[in-house]
Amino acid sequence: MNGNSRSSVRSGAHVKIVQKQDQLDGKLTEGIVKDVLTKSPTHPHGIKVRLQSGIVGRVKEIMDA
Fold first, then answer.
1. DSSP code of 20?
2. Residue 16: how many CB atoms within 10 A of its CB?
3. Which of 24, 34, 60, 61 gives a 20 to 30 Å CA spacing to 9?
4. pLDDT at 47
5. How many of the other CB atoms lie within 10 Å of CB of 11?
6. Domain spans of the chain, in order of start
7. Rounded to whole angstroms, how far apart are CA atoms 23 and 13?
8. Phi and psi at residue 21, in whole multiples of 5°?
């Protein structure tokens, strides 16, 4: 499942995100969502989240729905 819809991204979800500095090479970082930062219902590049580790990025894949 992709992370373009805010309704599908919940706090506590296990996700893979791309950080700003990794956008060109597409390197993904795995973690648990702490905060959902995007306010709009959808975003073409993925919903921006903060992981429990403090890393911020856009959701590319939701591991558990």
1. G
2. 16
3. 24
4. 97
5. 12
6. 6-62
7. 22
8. -75, -15
Find all residues with CB under 8 Å of 18, minimum gap 6, and list them: 26, 27, 28, 29, 46, 57, 58, 60
CATH (residue range 6-62): 2.30.30
Q: What is the pLDDT of residues 14-64, one digit of tens each?
A: 999 999 999 999 999 999 999 999 999 999 999 999 999 999 999 999 997
Q: What size, in residues, is the chain?
A: 65
Rg (CA), the chain: 10
- In what helix (H) or strand (E) does residue 29 lie, and over which residues does it extend? strand 28-36
Estimate to the nearest angstrom the gap between the alpha carbon of 58 and the chain centroid: 4
Write down the pLDDT at residue 64.
74
